[in-house]
Give the backbone structure.
Amino acid sequence: MSKTGIMVCGHGSRDTNAVREFEEMVKGLPAHFPDIPVEFGFLEFATPNIHTGLNSLLDQGVTKILAVPGMLFAAGHVKNDVPSVLNDYAAAHPEITIEFGRELGIDPKLLQAAADHIKKASEDAGDHVSPEETLLMVVGRGTSDPDANGNINKICRILWEGLGYGWGEVCYSGVTFPLVAPGLEHATKLGYKRIVVFPYFLFTGILVNRIYDITDQVAAQFPDIEFVKASYLGSHPMVVSTFADRLRGIDDGDVNMNCQMCKYREQVVGFEAHQAMPQQGHHYHVQAGGAAEHDHDHDHAHEHSHDHDHDHGHHHPPHPHADHPHGPGKRNSEAAE
C-alpha cells in the first residue's frame, strides 16, 4: 500500500527570521492534511536541505511524495533548480515517486493576503490622507525572467484598482529595473501625499530589510510625502491555504506552469537569445548532505533574484538591459545615494 508525504521546497536565507517564518508557514499545512507527513527543505543558505527533507519522508515509509515550490513565481529556481534536485533524488530512489506542483503564482487568496497587509498599514498610518491621494508601490523580487517580472505589474494593477488608490507603481529589489530607489524617486514626482510601499515577498530577509531601509532613505529626502511600509505576505492564513491548494492540484492535474511566455521556450521580445538555452540545476553544492551555506561574492546582473553572487561553476543568461540607467548593473544602495 502506498503512503503519501508532502515536501515543501524553499529557497533558503541567511536571515534566521526568514527561515523561522518559513518553518511556521509549513507548520500550518498539517491542519489541511492531518494524515499526511509534511517535511521541508531549502536549496541553499539554510538547513535542512531538500535531500534531508526527502530522506525524512523516506524514513517514514512514504512511497509517493507531493512536492511544491515554496516560491511565488516560476523563474529559474522553480523551472530548473528544484526540479533538478527532485529528479536526481527520484532517480536514486526508484522505490518512490515524486510529483511536482506549480508555483503559487497570481492567486485570489494571495491577493487577499496582500490587500489585508496594505489596508492595515494604511489604517495604522491614519485617515488624514485619503486613498485617492495615495500611491501604491509594489516591490517585486526581480529576476531576468520577464514573465515572472510581469506578474508583479498585474498584481499591482489588481491591488491598486481594487483598493481604490490614486495610482500604482512597480519596482524591484534587484536583477531587473527599475530598482527600489529610482522607482520611489520617480513616484515622488507624481504629486501624491502618501506612498505605501508593499514588498510582494513571502518572508522577511536581507532584501525586504533593504527595501525598508531604502524607503527610509528616500523618505528623508521628501519630508512633505508620507511613506508607509506595509508588511510582506508572511504566514497569513490565505498563504497557507494557497500552498494547500497547490498540493491538492497535483492529484487534480493542476500542475501546469505558464509556458506561453517562458523565455526558454518562446522568443520573448528582448530575450530572444535565451530561447532553447540549456536548463539545469546548480545547487548540487548543498545537496546530498552538502553544506547549505556557501561563502562567496558575486554580481547581481543575472538570473538570480536573491541577495548573493554566484561563482561556483554555473551560469545564468544576463539581463539584456543590465546597463540601463535604472537597471540591475547598479545596486539599490548605490541608487539611493
